[in-house]
Write a structure and sequence with these properties.
The chain has 420 residues and is of the alpha/beta class. The protein is 22% helix and 28% strand. It folds into two domains: 249 residues, Alpha-Beta Complex (Spore Coat Polysaccharide Biosynthesis Protein SpsA, Chain A); 108 residues, 3 Solenoid (UDP N-Acetylglucosamine Acyltransferase, domain 1), CATH 2.160.10.10. It is built from ten helices and 29 strands. Strands 1, 4, 5, 6, 8, 9, 10, 11 and 12 form a nine-stranded mixed beta sheet that branches.
Length: 420
């Protein structure tokens, strides 16, 4: 086994991002785009966090496997991530499910999404593979995890979150010994095992894995030849290594990147409307748990060339204003009042309208006298004049997608049905 420590291990690694999932719990927000392509933070997409972590960690070879409704995602990747150059030994490959292994087979699981592109991976000759989920929001230095993998001599190193034990029932949970070697892997257990010495918490899988490339390819070939396998890392590959090899847990707290203002490790699966809305509105806090203004660990994305945001009109009831809000470029807040809102590029908010705790995706129009509270508005929606959302729960539920916590998702087809 290679134990080189002369330079960053990331230089010899390839990041492989699994970005094919729909994210069905986001309901109509993923009707037209995969979950990794969902907008987040006013400028970014969810996938930008995993990709930025890779770049900031020093990884210069990246592959992204896409499948479900991938056009929006692929277009974003082509526009925003085309700066990696082959002549500098860098690469960026978009790998749609393209029936490369057989004419009938799409990606059958997360492991299969890597296996079907094994020839492309092997052509680059990376020493290590960092397998990433493309649908979580967090900042992490993968170099630290790579070093842990090499130092431990593991067959696989699994990124893990420490979570309260009974909150781990929806995750794959690692049962570890005192050295953090994984002795059992349990998918969504009813009674999760605690951490030795810290029984109140459990180690939940983040869907991040580090392998030596040669070993990974062997595991994938074995799995492909195993009848009945679901071709999945969490369900098949990792449990098999736990039983017959050496699997080690790496705790997120050891490699989480935090700025001076971030007091806790931040990781979010924004996979439900409530979680997405809450994480978005949280960014409007005076000192948010996630610092998007940390220049030492930038979140790269496709940066549109756009004019600055503009606020116009200054009279009672018709004042262009935003309090505790994030407003992206090319927005015109024209006599509209915003409070704790996250407003993406190109939004037009017209006179006498009010928005409170609203997450507005790009290119929306808020017509006059609309009153919107606790909403997520999909890209390109035109809110009609005088529409009121967030004041009558029964009426909201009849017209829009209303969550358990009272957040309304508004899409253009829902608006169109109002006039039908």
């Amino acid at each position: 086994m290679d134990h080189r420590t002369s330079g960053p291990l990331a230089r010899d690694a390839m990041a492989y991002v699994l970005a094919g999932g729909r994210g069905s719990r986001l309901k109509e927000l993923t009707d037209r785009r995969a979950k990794p392509a969902v907008y987040f933070g006013g400028k970014s997409r969810i996938i930008d966090f995993a990709l930025s972590n890779a770049i900031n960690s020093g990884i210069r070879r990246i592959g992204v496997a896409t499948q479900y409704k991938a056009h929006s995602l692929i277009r974003h990747l082509q526009r925003g991530w085309n700066f990696l150059r082959p002549e500098r030994n860098e690469s960026f490959d978009i790998l749609p499910a393209s029936q490369r292994v057989s004419e009938t087979q799409w990606y059958e699981g997360t492991a299969d999404a890597v296996y079907q592109n094994s020839d492309i991976i092997e052509s680059y000759g990376p020493e290590y593979m960092v397998i990433l989920a493309g649908d979580h929001v967090y900042k992490m230095d993968y170099e630290v995890m790579l070093q842990r993998h090499v130092d431990s001599g593991a067959d696989v190193t699994v990124g893990c979150l420490e979570v309260p034990r009974m909150e781990a029932t929806g995750f794959g949970v690692m049962h570890v010994d005192e050295t953090d070697r994984i002795v059992d892997f349990i998918e969504k257990p009813a009674d999760p095992p605690g951490i030795p010495g810290n029984e109140a918490n459990a180690l939940a899988s983040m869907g991040i894995y580090v392998f030596h490339t040669r070993a990974l390819m062997e595991f994938l070939r074995e799995d492909a030849e195993t009848p009945g396998s679901s071709r999945d890392f969490g369900k098949d590959i990792i449990p098999r290594i736990v039983k017959g090899g050496k699997a080690v847990a790496h705790r997120f707290s050891e490699s989480c990147v935090r700025s001076e203002t971030e007091t806790q490790s931040y990781w979010r699966d924004v996979g439900t409307i409530d979680a997405y809305w809450e994480a978005s509105v949280d960014l409007t806090d005076v000192t948010p748990e996630l610092d998007l203004y940390d220049h030492s660990w930038p979140i790269w994305t496709y940066a549109e060339i756009s004019p600055p945001a503009k606020f116009v009109h200054d009279e009672n009831g018709r004042r262009g204003s935003a309090v505790s809000s994030l407003v992206a470029g090319d927005c015109i807040i024209s006599g509209s009042s915003l409070t704790r809102c996250l407003v993406s590029a190109g939004v037009r908010a017209h006179s006498y309208s009010t928005l409170e705790r609203a997450v507005v995706l790009p290119r929306c129009t808020i017509s006059r006298k609309a009153r919107l509270k606790n909403v997520v508005i999909d890209r390109g929606v035109v809110i009609p004049e005088g529409l009121v959302v967030g004041e009558d729960p029964e009426l909201d539920a009849a017209r829009f997608r209303r969550s358990d916590r009272g957040v309304c998702l508004i899409t253009q087809p829902m608006i169109d049905r109002l006039d039908a």
